[in-house]
């Protein structure tokens, strides 16, 4: 089997915005975006990795939520998904937004131009890598040991790998909220249909799942 | 986490028929039902376990197809899903419809009133068990080592476990074909909504996914 590069559960507003501007330690999605506006659909499912109480839905959205880890052997993420710092890593004590038990449970390759030693939190090891998308993907594929690689975002990272034509499948969730300004994945999902098949699946929760795979 | 008992990818006609009558070695779904009328949706996906060539869709139907094995540690099936024989097992040489590499890759518990020794084909071990549904489920849960148990069918077996109120989730696919006569899961999916939440999700392939989970 091929090792796919997959975007999963990536959520944008109805106008294609994935995050606001002005990211900070307190506001990972920017000063004017509440992540709950986008990710409510996932938080309501039984399989949401951060769920601490029993319960949750087991309908359509749950299939997407639980596919998050299925056959994934590594993740690639942009630096801004790891933390709000810019420039050299001055503080090695702060080890990312993801807590002591990050939900990835695989090697994670964080894109950065600045060196930093790898470290492990629970089942997740963060590596800090510089390089072209194709080179980073080759590293992640090797670490994934035959499994697929998740392209975790943020939006700039997804666009960079799309521009390099390295993405095999995308699952993009469009939430019923208009954000207006911010970091945009697309003006319209149709922008990708020259290279990808597209299925559009409305969920009872109010979001619309967009499933893309290579033609 | 609980160990769920899950029905997955179970496909019926628009009038609720899962199999025809007159099952034989040559016609596992009965003399008047071509399995392609029901299962075309799964065969078209990239993740169909019996796929021998590359390709296949990676849209909505593929999420369901690939969830088949996800977090499943054992299967329970009725005798008629294993083979067309009735009564005592006279021929131990014939080892079921599933070939040398059955797609289950877990312990499988085959319901039968007639003893037969367990055997292994590739990653799948078939056990032949008699007993009440709750007792068989307890055996399967133990074998599943913390993972969920798939209730594989056929239709009589699904109904038997529903009657015993042992099923936690069901994914039932309704195919756009009317069969008229045969072994019926339901007259209408609404029959289950007293005990289960229901989401109905149409697929571009023409089938409609029905997702049930306990209230």
TrEMBL record, chains A, B:
<dbReference type="InterPro" id="IPR024072">
    <property type="entry name" value="DHFR-like_dom_sf"/>
</dbReference>
<dbReference type="InterPro" id="IPR002734">
    <property type="entry name" value="RibDG_C"/>
</dbReference>
<dbReference type="Pfam" id="PF01872">
    <property type="entry name" value="RibD_C"/>
</dbReference>
<protein>
    <submittedName>
        <fullName>DNA-binding protein</fullName>
    </submittedName>
</protein>
<keyword id="KW-0238">DNA-binding</keyword>
<feature type="domain" description="Bacterial bifunctional deaminase-reductase C-terminal">
    <location>
        <begin position="9"/>
        <end position="191"/>
    </location>
</feature>
<dbReference type="InterPro" id="IPR050765">
    <property type="entry name" value="Riboflavin_Biosynth_HTPR"/>
</dbReference>
<dbReference type="GO" id="GO:0003677">
    <property type="term" value="F:DNA binding"/>
</dbReference>
